Structures are given as C-alpha cells and as structure tokens.
Amino acid sequence: MPQYTGTNAQEFIDEARKIINKAQERGVSLKLIGALAFNLHCPEFNHIHQKWGRVFTDTDFVSRAEYGPILLEVYRELGYRDDEMITTLYGSTRMVFDNPETGFHSDIFYDKLDFCHELPLRDRLDVDELTIPLAELFLEKMQIVQINEKDLIDTMMLVREHAIGESDAETINGPVIGRILAADWGFWRTVTMNMEKTETLLEQIDLFESADVAIIRERMAQIREYIDDAPKPLAWKMRSKIGDRVKWYKDVDEL
Q: Is there a contact between 94 and 109 (Cβ–Cβ < 8 Å)?
C-alpha cells in the first residue's frame, strides 16, 4: 500500500500518541521528532504549517538502542511491519516501519541523530513528555547543511512560540545549545550559517506579522549570545582556524 501523506497534522499526532502510549506501557521512552514535534509544541503558531501548505508524511521518533527488541514487538502489535533488511543492517541505530492497512510510515532512531552532524539525545531523552527537548529540536533542523524552506519555517515557528532561557520547561535551553556546539566547530559552522539563512528568509516570506518577525529576530540573537559565550576548547579553536577550507560536515546517505 502506498505511503499515506496529508496536510492534517492532528491525524499524524494522534497516531504518534498511540505509538508512544503503547511503548510507555512497556516501559520504553519513545520521543517524537521532526515536523510533527514542532507542530505539537507550537499550538499558537502551528497555523503557519497550514498557511504554508505543509504536507506530513510520517512519524519519526528517537529511543534508546536497548529498547529496539521491545519496540519491534510494539509496532507489530499495532499492525506495522518493519523493513527487515534495514532492521538487519542498521537495527542498532535505526528501524523503519510501515502499516499496510493505513499507509502510515514510521522511523525510529536510536540514541542520537547522525546526519550532517551528530546530535546526542540519549541522556536527555526523558526531559519532555512527548518529544525531544526544544533545544535539540532547534538543532535537529539547524544541523542540515542543504537546508530547505520548510525546515527554516519550522525553526521560525519554534523560536516565535518559545522564550530562550536556561531551562527546558517550554523554553529553548540556550546553554544546552551552546555546550553542544562548543564541542564541534563543524556543527557550530552549520548552525550559525543556517541561523543567518533563517533570518534572511524571514524577510522574504509573508507568514508572520511584523511584531512576530521582531520577536524571532530578538530570540535568534539571544541564542547566538549563548552560542558565543559557551567556552570553546583548544580543539575547537584550532579547527576554527582551518575554517571552510576543509569540509566540516558529513553527506547524508539515503537508506
């Protein structure tokens, strides 16, 4: 059956909640990532998704690697089938599921997101009830080297909806962002580059009121302050001297 897609985020969120609840019954932490996580965390501004015509395609999650065998059982109980080849080859880092009855597709990543850069998630997986923490949601999008408009708009929504601070309670945790980027100059380079792209696109689109644009700009500046103020180790400083002369990111391979 073809993969189901749609513009109604709620039906995907309902499916995600069903999977999360089933996993929690088995004592498993399973947290939503991707566009649906942004939609869920931005009740005041997720209308931007509808206004922009955002299409949803799947439910994406992060869990811990040791939960893989249990999650395989959970998904099968919910009518999903795993891609056996991917489970065999990549099962310790990723699994892919499809529901032949509904057409829903679902991905699970374990312990981290490892795309253009490595975003660790294992130790902070239980900070939020349903998703990875807001700081990590911000970095999930900002780590994409070949970033597109939908990812930049998701970031704008998140920053407009949430204050920047030093906690995780519906707040984008600035020190966490600063600490992660201080550990990897390449990650820092991509994120700061994409923050500039976000502000440039903000001036070119007509999705936010002028007052909202000002708030997004102010909060992006606050995030940049936390990034700049985070102490940088010697290895980071040495890599920064090389700069863009050496490739600083990984190419993302499709499964």
A: yes
Please tell me the distance from the alpha carbon of residue 196 to that of residue 55, in angstroms, as a whole number. Answer: 25
* Ramachandran angles phi, psi of 128, nearest 5°: -110, 155
* Tens of pLDDT, residues 28-43: 999 999 999 999 999 9
CA proximity to 208, closest of 55, 54, 56, 44: 44
- What's this model's pTM, rounded to 2 decimal places? 0.96
Which CATH architecture fits 1-132?
Answer: 2-Layer Sandwich (3.30)
- Sign of the dihedral through C-alpha 176, 177, 179, 180: positive
Least Cα distance to 130 among 48, 26, 43, 21 occurs for: 21
Encoding tokens for residue 104?
């829903």
Every domain range in the chain assigned CATH 3.30.460 = 1-132
